[in-house]
């Protein structure tokens, strides 16, 4: 698991949970007969995937609605906006969308404003030649967005991207939103598929491919690489399938026909940088455990090392008697002269809702936006330091600043964690 959403909240419901899974006939959009796996072979005599199941009417409608939106925008240029620190789920899902859109002659460009700071993400992008561009907020200010007919939000709802305000100022409508984070504020989009019960956005995009919006072909290198990226994305958001549900396993089974296992292995083998190891070390040294919550402040971090925070949280949550870990630090963005308190939560406690926990712990800013939120078993927050931002030569001052923020974050967390005073709201 990697980057988190730091996201506000309101209501926007699209689909209800459904235990069914999309059918797998790649050429039809209509239900197909259930075919049983034939002994020892992967496909039946018609070359159909053995786990074909009927789609619910609701799923059929969603697929058809998506197809119609793409059809309506045939020939358009679109901008796919990712969160500032895109993770494998976001990267692979955006790529899948781009390839699906291509079938409708839509030219979609994948952009993000921040950094690819996790070693596996850098490896994924390099090894698969994943087509994405960094678009900084500075460049965005002067960019001509009028060539784009719409923008697309994948694995986010705009609140974790610094780019959305510029795009909205340019009056670019939101055409498509596909995400699995909890609902956020009033998002006006032509097509919305938000499933907070689904573990990975990669699973959703894989279902669209299975439904026939794109026919994967093992002789097309780009398809093999995209399938590999999707496999990595869905594994990464399900803690290597340990938190996967039936639909994720079915999506993985489908992808297994196309992905390159060696390529995936190469991506996973990428090693941690020294800076990441140092942050993990600091989190271990500074952690305190209260009521099965492990809490650690790690001090200052470079912008490029931001993803060390969720990695440290992933590690701390593995300790005996710990069910939830929260790691936070001050991330310094030299380009923008900004500082943020950035934190990640990881939990093994199924009854703890990270989204609710983070919103309850940190509340909202002056505009009523929450400082963070989450999805199943993971969450994140980002609190701008405003006037107190900015690097200083004075190490005493830097130390004081850290200790004030450290104390404040701890205090807010302990208010929820300490059962004597107030038991955490998201915990039942
Ligand atoms: Mn995701």
If you had to describe this structure to a student in words, what would you say it looks like?
This protein has 2 domains: 57-268, inorganic pyrophosphatase (n-terminal core), CATH 3.90.1640.10; 274-417, Diaminopimelate Epimerase, Chain A, domain 1 (Roll), CATH 3.10.310.30. Helix content is 36%, strand content 18%. The protein has helices at 57-72, 88-102, 119-128, 137-142, 164-169, 201-213, 221-237, 246-255, 261-268, 274-286, 308-316, 354-362, 395-417; strands at 77-81, 107-112, 132-134, 150-154, 174-179, 189-194, 288-290, 293-302, 324-333, 338-347, 372-375, 378-384. The strands form 2 sheets. The protein has a 6-stranded parallel sheet with strand order 3-2-1-4-5-6. Strands 7-8-9-10-12-11 form a 6-stranded mixed sheet, sandwiched between helices. It starts with 56 loop residues before the first helix and ends in an 11-residue tail after the last helix.
């Amino acid at each position: 698991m990697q980057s988190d959403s730091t996201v506000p909240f309101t209501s926007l419901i699209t689909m209800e949970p459904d235990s069914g899974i999309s059918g797998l006939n790649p050429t039809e959009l209509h239900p197909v007969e259930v075919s049983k796996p034939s002994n020892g072979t992967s496909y039946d005599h018609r070359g159909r995937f053995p786990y074909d199941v009927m789609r619910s009417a609701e799923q059929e409608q969603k697929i058809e609605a998506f197809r119609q939106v793409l059809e309506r925008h045939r020939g358009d240029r679109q901008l796919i906006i990712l969160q500032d620190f895109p993770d494998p789920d976001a990267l692979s899902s955006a790529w899948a969308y781009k390839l699906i859109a291509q079938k409708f002659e839509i030219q979609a460009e994948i952009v993000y404003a921040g950094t690819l700071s996790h070693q596996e993400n850098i490896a994924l992008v390099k090894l698969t030649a994943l087509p994405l561009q960094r678009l900084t907020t500075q460049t965005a200010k002067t960019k001509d967005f009028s060539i784009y007919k719409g923008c697309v939000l994948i694995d986010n709802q705009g609140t974790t991207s610094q780019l959305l305000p510029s795009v909205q100022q340019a009056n670019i409508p939101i055409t498509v939103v596909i995400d699995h984070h909890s609902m956020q504020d009033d998002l006006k989009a032509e097509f919305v598929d938000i499933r907070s019960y689904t573990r990975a956005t990669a699973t959703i995009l894989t279902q669209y491919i299975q439904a026939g919006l794109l026919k994967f072909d093992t002789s097309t290198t780009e398809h093999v690489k995209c399938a590999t990226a999707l496999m990595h994305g869905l594994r990464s958001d399900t803690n290597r399938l340990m938190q996967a549900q039936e639909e994720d396993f079915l999506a993985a089974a489908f992808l297994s026909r196309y992905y390159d296992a060696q390529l995936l292995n190469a991506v996973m083998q990428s090693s941690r940088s020294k800076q990441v190891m140092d942050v993990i070390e600091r989190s271990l040294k500074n952690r305190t455990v209260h009521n099965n919550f492990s809490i650690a402040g790690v001090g200052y971090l470079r912008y490029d090392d931001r993803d060390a925070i969720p990695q440290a949280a992933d590690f701390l949550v593995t300790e005996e008697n710990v069910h939830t870990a929260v790691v936070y630090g001050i991330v310094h963005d030299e380009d923008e002269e900004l500082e943020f308190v950035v934190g990640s939560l990881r939990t093994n406690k199924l009854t703890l809702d990270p989204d609710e926990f983070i919103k309850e712990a940190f509340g909202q800013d002056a505009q009523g936006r929450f400082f963070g939120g989450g999805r199943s078993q993971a969450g994140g927050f980002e609190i701008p330091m405003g006037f107190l931002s900015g690097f200083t030569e004075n190490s005493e001052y830097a130390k004081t600043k850290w200790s004030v923020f450290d104390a404040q974050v701890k205090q807010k967390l302990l208010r929820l964690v300490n059962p004597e005073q107030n038991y955490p709201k998201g915990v039942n």
